[in-house]
Amino acid sequence: MAHGARRLRSIIGGSAGNFVEWYDWFAYASLSIYFAPAFFPEDNPTIQLMNTAAIFAVGFIMRPVGAWAMGIYGDRHGRKAGLALSVGLMCAGSLLIALAPTYAAAGWAAPVLLVFARMLQGLSVGGEFGASSTYLSEMATAERRGFWSSFQYVTLIGGQLAALGVLIVLQALLDEAALEAWGWRIPFALGAVLALGVFLFRRGLAETRQFAAIDRAATPASSARNLWAGHRRATLMIVAMTIGGTLAFYAYTTYLQKFLVNSAGFSRPQATAITAAALAVFMLQQPLWGCLSDRIGRKPQMIFFGVTGAVTTVPIFHALADAGDPVTAFWLALIPLTLMSAYTSVGPITKAELYPAHIRTLGVALPYALANTAFGGTAEYVALWLKNAGVEEAFYWYVSAGIAIALIAFVALPDTRRISQISDD
Asked: 168: buried, middle or exposed (CB in 10 Å: 19+, 13-18, 0-12)?
């Protein structure tokens, strides 16, 4: 197979796996408004959502473990080996959720099984981000690295959009009672089947030249200790960048659907349709911003998001809460998503360009996962807790402050388009 065709096949393979990973991950967030009563027999809908959001956060707790274990695995045994392992774990987690008994059938064993399934998915996603970021970055050519790497978020958002799309179809075909009783299981079963297919496909991917060229005798082993000792500044910058990026991402995407129902007063089908439409436009923007970064650099785009995101978050949430119709809500939701595209399109490639090949997968995965767990995984729970406490506006300021922290890192960041640790193939 010609090198160009092999490169394209590899990029598709890495992206397809990322799509399935995030479809399965976000299916939980999208379907929780339906399966929450099956696992938590509370009368208060907000308390039910808080319980499912807490389990969503538990999945995030496992992400640093997965990032650490599979980051080292990918640096020592190969990028494609890490990609296959991550999607295999996701298959197991989704299948378990699809088959899990309800609280009525198994008592507290039901939410315990749900927690275990989310732990498997957390391990999977924790390893996937670093593995796919590194793989796509190393497979892309230098002059188009921003463009090709942006497809990581195209497929990430595509997975989230697919989860919402499946939900929209189910909402059209089934009534609310059927969805709450058994319909919510269908997306998880579908995700398990898709993950199995991608697992088989990924086993046939080509390895990157960057990994093959690593001189094991001349470089330190990939480990958390060596990451901190040799790459402390880059690691701290990724943590700070991720604080703002992940808070914004989960506030504007997964929490948006619940916010539209719980705070803005839209019906569940309306909220799903608004969120899906906004995410579709958000997804299509990623390659455009990726192309722009190949011309002007990653750093200017990130600073743009840091400034505009910190300033607009509070007024946008206030406006969404008062939106009177779905069209207005769609356009309002699209504003922060568009601003965030300047970051999401180039975030993974920027992180990969900060590290040498022998420790790149771990370097991308672990600091990202730590910050993602602490801030992204808890975003929904914090938002719902503050709403239940009667101070919902505090969440808007919390997201704004997180983006401001990221802005400090963006300013300190080198222009990785010109100064990159990824050499051209």
From this structure: middle
Backbone angles phi, psi at 259, to 5 degrees: -60, -40
| Helix H or strand E segment including 380 | helix 379-388
Helix axis angle, 298-321 to 326-344, nearest 10°: 160
For residue 411, count other CB atoms closer than 10 A to its CB. 11
In 3D space, the residue among 323, 201, 345, 310 whose CA is nearest the CA of residue 271 turns out to be: 323
CA angle 280, 172, 157 (to 5 degrees): 20
DSSP code, position 1? -
The mean-pLDDT minimum among 54-58, 167-171, 262-266, 335-339 falls in: 54-58
- Across the range 237-256, mean pLDDT stands at 93
Cα distances (angstroms) measured from residue 205 to each of 5, 71, 260, 263, 341: 12, 18, 41, 46, 29
Mean pLDDT is highest, among 210-219, 369-378, 410-419, for: 369-378
Closest residue by Cα to residue 31 from 199, 219, 160: 160
Percent pLDDT > 70 in the chain is 93
> H helices of 253-322, where?
254-262, 268-296, 298-321
- Tracing tokens 């504003």 back to the chain, one arrives at 335
Distance CA 379, CA 317 (A): 15
Question: Helix, strand, coil % (nearest 5) of the chain?
Answer: 85, 0, 15
CA atoms within 13 A on the CB side of 397: 5
Number of H helices, E strands in the chain: 20, 0
The answer to whether 238 touches 375, Cβ cutoff 8 Å, is no
**DSSP letters along 33-78, please?**
HHHHHHH---S-HHHHHHHHHHHHHHHHHHHHHHHHHHHHHHHHH-
pTM, full prediction: 0.83
- Please state which of the ranges 227-241, 292-306, 344-358 shows the lowest mean pLDDT: 344-358
Distance of CA 401 to the CA centre of its chain: 20
Confidence of residue 1 (pLDDT cuts 50, 70, 90): very low
pLDDT of residue 49: 66
Closest CA to 99 of 85, 87, 119, 117: 117
Residue 375 amino acid letter: F
User: Does residue 320 surpass a pLDDT of 90?
Assistant: yes
